[in-house]
Amino acid sequence: MADDIDLAQDRIDAEMQARLRVLPTFDIASLIECQECGEEIPSKRRAIGGVKRCFDCQNNFEGRR
Ligand SMILES: [Zn+2]
């Protein structure tokens, strides 16, 4: 199970890197802290722009749809 999460994280990181190359600037600033749980969002994740949730809460949020 942990391996699956690590693999998913690696894929997301790769996608983020690809997106950053295509879209170098974002108008929407990321939140410093997750709006769901208040945990600090890692700077690597915030760098995407428009990030409002930590990785776990984003997963939960997307899983609920
Ligand atoms: Zn969170």
How is the secondary structure organized here?
Layout lengths: L1 H21 L20 H4 L8 H10 L1
The structure holds zinc ion.
The site of zinc ion has 8 residues, from α3.
From the structure above, extract its key features.
about 60 residues, mainly alpha, 3 helices, globular, binds zinc ion
Q: Would you mind describing this structure in some detail?
A:
The chain is mostly helical and 65 residues long. The chain has one domain (2-64). Helix content is 54%, strand content 0%. It contains three helices and no strands. The longest helix is centred in the first third of the chain and has 21 residues, at 2-22. It starts with a helix and ends with a helix.
Strand content: under 5%
Uncertain segments of ≥5 residues (pLDDT<50)? none
C-alpha end-to-end distance: 22 Å
- Molecular shape: globular
Our count of helices gives 3
Would you summarize the structure shown here?
With 65 residues, the protein is an all-alpha fold. It is built from three helices and no strands. The two termini are 22 Å apart.
